[in-house]
Hints:
Elements: E1 7-10, E2 13-16, H1 28-32, H2 44-65, E3 69-73, H3 78-83, E4 97-102, H4 108-117, E5 123-127, E6 130-134, E7 144-146
Helix pairs in contact: 2-4
Amino acid sequence: MNTHNNENHTKGQTLCVNDIQLSQHFKLSEFCNWEKYPKNMPTIQQIANMAYGCRQLLEPAREAIGCPIIVNSGFRNPRVNALVGGVRNSQHLQGQAADIRPRDPAMFQRLVSFLKAHALTDQLLTGPGWLHISWSPFRPPRHDVRIGYYK
Length: 151
């Protein structure tokens, strides 16, 4: 259970972001990893970008493979991105990417196939046991697919 109490203070209002539901099955806390990186706080625009990705790609993918999707890495502020070795222009910095895996490892190839064919996939990179998916709410998707990609 996530007991961290992240609050975003704006103009006298307090917003508790722990329980923000990005979509039916995905919460903001899954994308920010506050247990490990408590200062990894997104802006409202970055939250909206994550919600877009969840609703347009991750929820349909979850339904297509018939099992939950685990978010290994989602939003990253510049410090977290540097700590994990992310590229300088990573879409994780904008809340437009996630490193994911299906809860059931047997569904990995089905998840890759679904996202590879999805019209809104901006970038899909895979390696042994991991999958990076990105989306872009503001421009047409590049549909950059690299299976077996190694950084």
